[in-house]
Amino acid sequence: MFLMDLQERNERLFYKLMIDNVEELLPVVYTPTVGEACQKYGSIFRRSQGLYISLKDKGRVLEVLRNWPEKSIQVIVVTDGERILGLGDLGCQGMGIPVGKLALYTALGGVRPSACLPITIDVGTNNEELLNDEFYIGLRQKRATGQEYTELLDEFMVAVKQNYGQKVLVQFEDFANHNAFTLLEKYKATHLVFNDDIQGTAAVVLAGLMAGLKFAGGTLADHTFLFFGAGEAGTGIAELVALEISMQSKTSQEEARKNIWLVDSKGLIVSSRKDSIQPFKKLYAHEHEPVKDLLSAIKDIKPTALIGSAGVGQSFTKEVIEAMSSINKRPIILALSNPTSKSECTAEQAYSWSQGRAIFGSGSPFDPVKYNDKLFVPAQANNAYIFPGFGLGVVTSGAIRVKDDMVLAAAEALAEQVTAEHFDKGLIYPPFSSIRKISANIAARVAVKAYDLGLASHLPRPKDLVKYAESCMYSPIYRSYR
Ligand SMILES: NC(=O)C1=CN([C@@H]2O[C@H](COP(=O)(O)OP(=O)(O)OC[C@H]3O[C@@H](n4cnc5c(N)ncnc54)[C@H](OP(=O)(O)O)[C@@H]3O)[C@@H](O)[C@H]2O)C=CC1
Ligand SMILES: CC(=O)C(=O)O
Ligand SMILES: [Mg+2]
Description:
GO cellular component, one term: chloroplast
Mean pLDDT: 97
CATH superfamily of the largest domain: Malic enzyme, N-terminal domain
Structural class: alpha/beta
Keywords: Metal-binding, Oxidoreductase
Protein name: Malic enzyme
Distance between the termini: 35 Å
Strand order of the largest sheet: 8-7-6-9-10-11-14
Family: Belongs to the malic enzymes family.
Number of helices: 21
CATH architecture of the largest domain: 3-Layer(aba) Sandwich
Cofactor: Mg(2+); Mn(2+)
Largest sheet: 7 strands, mixed
CATH topology of the largest domain: Rossmann fold
Number of domains: 3
Shape: globular
Bound molecules: NADPH dihydro-nicotinamide-adenine-dinucleotide phosphate, pyruvic acid, magnesium ion
Low-confidence stretches: none
Strand content: 5-15%
């Protein structure tokens, strides 16, 4: 609440504070605290921090967009609040997420605050507690679905392009997966769209895997991956890993998918379930007997990497981590679910149950852990490493579309910035304290891809794209007026 007030009162000071104390303040502006802020958003609400577009605005969405005082927008983060972190449907109160993500766009990626627009689309909520909460700030009705939902979203996407042109980046955030994949597929050919939960998460995890392998040895193709959670994050990561393997080992993506397995709420995804699962899971329905629980899946599949993205806290039990540690000398264990209460295990559990052998990362931050006299610094495997730099690269190159190759480039750029020194401490990412440098490097690599693919409209192409990205970054300094 204090930081929200400061952001409102003295934006420059807010960003100065954020940038100078990023490791301390990230857990407040972002996960885990932002989750709690969204849950309580109605009762801590003081003034609007973003733009709300509701079902009632149908037919005049463009007019509503034009009410936003800033005209020169480069990045929109939009949610409909249906899957806020691992906390479920928080309706309109999900606004904390676009606001928090965009604060990171500025603090971590250097996109000007005035060029950032947080939007929440209010189509109702199915969260009974919120519907009965006198302080709930959104429409008091069940979620609109089907044609009513699709028409509002379509009107929004058309209005965005009409108002801001085709170079505004629209980041979809925390939509439920039954809409997220469809929206990305529908608009990726006509708009500059990026789904952070699918693509940003994929890039950060791939980067962590590549960095880990650089020091632990081996290639991605040597590994067997088991995902606990087969939604946006799980299948998004799986697809990018398969793409990278296919490029590294010159095989087909289909071949690469054979070493990637996923578990959802009904157990291991296997071929006998093919007719009853959502389309985004089908590519991973391999031949295997049905398996109901995670531990049995681990014993059968013998994965080298276990990646949690089911939003189920404490699902990596002692038995699960011990099973991973009995199969692998250095088990890779990523507990991606947010916020901390949904983390599959804590850093302390991962290190102690694996006797200090786990290569560990988590979506929400954990403090360093001392185990057998060694201090382990857990990595934060969070898309916050990717989207600020990715967005900076997209907007500074004037890219008009997002392509998978640009997402891969972001992952490679992040992985390259991990040193042996980081890895020795337990890190598979560089520390957030150097995030602006990291973001400039990611931006440059994304821009290179955009230029190479003929998608960049900022011409002529700057010679040194890292320097160019840095020169475009907003810095919260007071100018001298004398
Ligand atoms: N660290 C990071 O950067 C990121 C972390 N996340 C986190 O990942 C989590 C999931 O996000 P997302 O993928 O978008 O969500 P989705 O809703 O798209 O996917 C959740 C998946 O988990 C499965 N699941 C749910 N309950 C269980 C259970 N008891 N046992 C096994 N599987 C289960 C679901 O199964 P079914 O399909 O059968 O319903 C579904 O496949 C969230 O906590 C989110 O905060 C997300 C993005 C980025
Ligand atoms: C980090 C993020 O995007 C999520 O948990 O949804
Ligand atoms: Mg998200």
